[in-house]
Known about the structure:
The chain has 13 helices and 15 strands. Helix 3 packs across helix 4 and helix 5 (about 190-200) packs parallel to helix 6. It has about 400 residues and is of the alpha/beta class. The strands form two sheets. Strands 1, 2, 3, 4, 5, 6, 7, 8 and 9 form a nine-stranded mixed β-sheet that branches. The protein has helices at about 20-35, 60-70, 90-100, 125-140, 190-200, 220-235, 250-255, 265-280, 300-310, 325-335, 335-340, 360-370, 375-385; strands spanning about 1-10, 40-45, 50-55, 75-85, 110-115, 145, 150-155, 160-165, 170, 180-185, 205-215, 240-245, 285-290, 315, 385-390. It folds into two domains: about 5-170, VC0802-like (2-Layer Sandwich), CATH 3.30.2130.30; about 180-390, Rossmann fold, CATH 3.40.50. The longest helix is centred in the first third of the chain and has 19 residues, at about 20-35. Adenosine-5'-triphosphate binds near residues 188, 191, 290, 298 and 348.
Amino acid sequence: MREVILCKYGEIILKGANKATFESKLLKEVRRRAKHFGNYSVRYMQSTVYVEPLDEDADFNVSELYEQVKKIFGFAGVCLAAVCEKDIGDICRVAAEYIPQKLRGAATFRAEAKRSDKSFPLPSPEIAAEVGGAILDVMPSLKVDLDHPDVTVRVEIRDKFAYIHAGQEPGAGGIPMGTGGRGMLLLSGGIDSPVAGYMMMKRGLIVDAVHFESFPYTSELARDKVMRLAKLMTEYSGRMRVHVISLTEIQEAIRDNCEEEYFTLLLRRFMMRLASRCAESVSCPVLITGESLGQVASQTLKAICVTEDAAGVPVFRPCIGLDKEEIVRTARKINTFDTSIEPYEDCCTVFTPRHPKTRPELDRVIEEEKKLDVSALEERAWESRYSTVIKQFED
Ligand code: ATP
Ligand code: MG
């Protein structure tokens, strides 16, 4: 018996003239992952991508690859299915052999059939009845429940073969990566920014990251944590370029020359300028941050406006309307939470003011900034940058 992965399109179905571009990105991503696990054929038909192992002993890899396709943006649902000939006898035989292992723990089920190939001699209700009967023969204690079954078994009669599965799971949703352009994520070691990056990847952006550090006030361990977060995000993106820029001199200049209540705002304006420059240098037209309105003093409405004023490109803040609890839920889902809560310092927590301004006026902040040689500081920080590419399947 052959087992394959079926991946059902999400929003792409709604695309008109651009559909082919979306499809080709999606297939490329499935092929990239499949290649890592073995020899697979990847093809699409009727809003479904079929991933079929070409090697006989690929059983083990299919389930690993299955976990991978759940992370590909663009699919609404995925499932493992058994393949059989388009013959009702073969369909029932395969159903009786394949489905019981998928129904473990279920007390009730129902069978459904769908014929994309209308030339198949039996109508859908009859196929469903035959398959249901074949399953009951081998699992006599199971009951049929048409309204609220524990599991729905589906038979799909398609172009070349019939497929049988025990229900699909949700896919990653979103639209294929790379169909929306590029964005530069400001990646700290915290909970919010990896979630923000994930959310924009899901909407089709290729995401680069820029991380600011302040050695020796921040440590190698803090940087390593950020690299591990980036690595976890490559589970979705495949690869991520991380740019690292030092803010040490800028932070010391702010500490030595400016009023304490403005420290964080001034620092964040430098971050925006440098991140914008970094974005433009690699043709990213937008920045992405993990800010959430009202979360901390630097994320009040006025503080965000003061920060935004220093950005040279638009800033996306996908977490802006989310509660911390909602952000945490996503962080757990994408597996970044446990790493994010490791207790390493961030440059934003170096020289933090005891009483930060929560309702800053832009004019006043700009006055404060005049105490610094902004362009010289920015230039030297820019010179400190380096970048590294992190790939999903490489150590
Ligand atoms: P997070 O949980 O993502 O660390 P936070 O709660 O620590 O965010 P802030 O420190 O105010 O909040 O940072 C707000 C946003 O600014 C972060 O989500 C991130 O996008 C960006 N940011 C903060 N510190 C850094 C840094 N060291 N390098 C790059 N970006 C940063
Ligand atoms: Mg935050």
